[in-house]
Amino acid sequence: MATNTAPKIIDIRQDGGGLTPLVPQIREGLNAREGQEKKLPTLLLYSEGWLEAFEKITYLDEYYPTGQEIQVLEAYADRIADRIALESDSMLVELGSGYVQPPCRT
């Protein structure tokens, strides 16, 4: 009898949380030397509102990667799952935009 176990989720984000680690990056980016481009960490863009806007963008016809990713998953989902199942220590890593849209369609 097969048992269903929950998948093991490994959170690969850096420890520390909060914005404190961003302060030095912000200072460095805004204090760029003459001739260098000023910049800010992209993490500052990842507010809840930005993630919602990005989710909407990813489903526009003009944003082709989402459609192509879905086509690949629909075409090869069984083969991908079979391949992962062959190895007891294998894992599937999804490094998407961070939005919580499940990568499957029913």
Automatic annotation (TrEMBL):
Pfam families: Methyltransf_33. Residues 25-99 form the Histidine-specific methyltransferase SAM-dependent domain. GO terms for biological process: methylation. The keyword DNA repair does not apply. It comes from the Eukaryota. GO terms for molecular function: methyltransferase activity. This is Histidine-specific methyltransferase SAM-dependent domain-containing protein. Keywords: Methyltransferase, Transferase. InterPro entries: EgtD_Methyltrsf_superfamily, MeTrfase_dom, SAM-dependent_MTases_sf. Gene3D superfamilies: Vaccinia Virus protein VP39. The keyword Transferase applies.
